[in-house]
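[Amino acid chain]
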Amino acid sequence: MKITLAIVISLLIIVGAGRALLTLPAVQDAVIERGTALLAKRGAEPFPESESLRVYVCGSASPLGTGQAQACIAVITPEHFFLIDSGAGSTDNINRLGLPADRLQGLLLTHFHSDHIAEIYEINLASWVQGRPTPLTVYGPYGVAEVTNAINGAYRQDRRYRTGHHGEELLPPALGVLAHKSILPGVILQDGDLTITAYVAEHPPIHPAVGYRFDYRGRSVVISGDSNVTDKTLAIVEGADLLLHDALSLPTLTALTEALNAEGQSRQSKIVSDVIDYHASTDALIELGQQSNVDMVAFYHLVPVPPTSLFEDVFLRGAPDNFLVAEDLMWFELPIESDDIIVHRP
């Protein structure tokens, strides 16, 4: 007992001494020098090369819940980099993942709810600062021109300030202005080995809303945005390797609605109950998996965001082994000339 007490006292003294040392300017400067050197070294590391189709979860949350960024998925090949949606908090995750923002080619919007468009300018700014060589094009259904023009107008002064401060050579003004392209269902882009196809999503009363399928050298991924499961969903996932689909936990949402009502929070209860009718339930997605030959299904845009592993288990209740719950910073590797899907967890 005396030995244990002596060890504890010694540790407390050491910890106290360490804290005292950190108040000394010379020690602080040494720590800052070391930390900034490591940060700069990490930033100088090139993005790892790979022949695979890679898919990154930059935002897995819906507006119901906290702790994760809102909807954003990155799709990267050796020649391409596209984002699907740009929810709040997603740009920070793009930076944390070390994704090559300087070669971002396009942002594909599924629809114009705030949790899918909140950081359009943030990723535009981040990729402009990192040296993106062409204007960032925002693709989306009818209405995308209104969204991008409004953002360009709102941040006109910001762009002027930054170019004025850093110079036109570093931040060419034209590259800070968003471009846009309205799309219709069908193939919207073919570039080398990559084909991107848009399909109609069901998210009433939001219209139009779309999802996207990426096909690259025999590998494929479908990203739903927000949608119920429909015949168009079933058709677009045919033969796909990976489906990332918005997912709603009906048991959790039902319990939350009833709990809010019981506490007299009828306004909040109404909003939560309204959400149920325009997102895919986990049961509907499990049925989709049974009816299709998609190899893996990942739930994202989680309604609500599961705060604990118990709530994650509720999302996966009744799901087969090829289903999982996505989380921020998770990514998927789909090697070419293979059926493998390698899941990398944060």
